Predict the structure.
Amino acid sequence: MTPTLFGRIQTRIIMMATLGVIWTAIIGPVLPRPSVDGESISLGNMYKALYLAVVVVTVVGVVWELIYHWIQQYRWEKDWPTIYGLVVAINEGIVAYLILNAGLFWDERPPGQSFPLPAFLIMFVTLWLIIWAFTNGPMQILSLRWRFRGGRFDPNW
Amino acid sequence: MELTQQLLEMPEWSDDDIVRHQLPIVDTPFVSVGGGMGSLAMVDTLRIAGQPVESLTVLAENAIPSETYEHLANNSQIPRHERLRSDSSSTMDCIWGWPGYALREAVADKKIGPAATVFAEPILANYYTPKAGQVYESVRREATRIGWDRMLRTGIVRTVRRRREGGYFVIHTPADQSGAVPGGPKQRVVYRCHHIHLAVGYPGVKMLGDLQAYREEHQDWRRVVNAYEPHLHAYEEMLRRPCTVVVRGSGIVASRVLQRMIDDRDQRGAQTRIIHLFRNYPDGPQGDKATFRRPVLAGWAKQGFNFPKAAWGGQLRNDLESLEGDERSKFIDAMGGTNTAPRKDWEEQLERGAREGFYRQLIGTVKSVVPAEGNAGIRTVIADRQGGESFLDADFIIDATGLEAGIEEHRVLRDLLQYGGARKNVKGRLDVERDFTVRGTQSGTGRLYASGSITLGGYYAGVDSFLGLHYAALRIADSLAENGFGKKIGPLRSTSQWWKWARNKPI
């Protein structure tokens, strides 16, 4: 891919707002739920925690995109290799989890527990793979001009 | 009746002018002149956007869109089984670019290799590139699917001229002259259209000045050859007897020619000695800052494709679009210029050649090329960097610099410059807008567009590539839609059309 900075940010937000929201809704009920006083937390609370994760990955992701864009400047081709798109899941996942577990902004940790790690991991990794696979091909079917516009969706060439 | 000088000297024609000359008129809303890969990309996009075959006419010399490309690729030593220098997602048969050639090759051959390469490139592997034959096959399939033959009229385009009432006339000399009077004027057809697209490819190949001078003076077209022209006789002679060959140029075609000669040494017992003559020898990375630096290896500037990838659709495309004049020309040169692809097999061959002495690099400026004493071959007289003079005798000289002739070598383009209002850009090619409208050629509400190598020097660098042809086609289709010809392809149409493409369903 050869994203521009605005292309990166637009693609990130639109992917999370569509695939992110849909996939989280689908996978939510089957993720392992933490127990409080011997009872699993409700699906509602589970969704609250998961959608908070979606928001954090989106918002913090914009900052990440600034860093990636800066790294990209040191590449002659000004591209973003396919494999980088996977590798950065590691740093992003770790930072997103640390933020969620610190209870910054909103606190969706079950009382007295850390943010549910297994559920976060499964959801984050599967969602990442879906978005990565989608933006590396099928996206071009839906938006013919996307690849020529550096990942932007706005109608200007 | 024949075309008259008087008619040919009028910058604009009216319907009456044509009728007076008794030339048959065929009405068609849109004409694409060329019939190669550029025309295919154009009419493919318009067909997918919803245009019926009746609205589109392709005027071509050849019946198959990949024919000229294959001819040039064969000459430059890329037969069907060898790989092009083209990205997996630059799919000539599929305007969406997915699935790419790598994924298709992996599925067809039941091998993970090509797909894995795309995943790892360019970090852990060299760029995947498709086999030439795979591209031609895909082109044939897509041309059939969109009804290419029903849009195609073979022959030669003589002239494109503005029509006084708006739109354009195209004078066409059909390949089939069976209706012409024997000994009389050629049979012609005039296409009266609203919009025109020109994708006529290279106006012609050009030799280096000193080689051209030698060829003409000594009438020797056998020993001094251009890599884009047929020159198989040279390789055949290298197999028959030990030859010394001078190679000029250090771009992708030079790489390919060297590979051919060294493959013949390795596999078929040739004893060829190669002298590779550089005029400019980069001995360090190119570029003026840390964020603009191209690697150089042993005199070869290396990058995956002829421009950095982002020139086709990333930040470099944006940068170039904002530049004018000389700045634009310089930026195109800095991103492109002479360069070749990093390929481990080529690097291994050249390292081994240098070690074993059959491949030697020399730096110098050629002063002249003359027959060698005793008629043993051709002598290249060189001025070296210290001002000294030396000479090289060789059996063949291969010009792989890839120089292109000026656009006025093409009759239709020369005519457009003279009568059609077209101008040349900073690189001497056709001056086009960002949407590939040829500046100065508007005719009423009609528009004249151009794509491909004749537009190099404009706001888009990769014009002479598969992906560049698709980019141009899409920009032109959008511009046509704004001018009332068809509709822009939106997400729903795009998706439903892709589904038809995937099932190879004719449209």
In short: The interface with chain B takes residues 1-5, 7, 73-74, 76-79, 81-84, 137-138, 140-145, 147-150, 157 of chain A (CB under 8 Å).
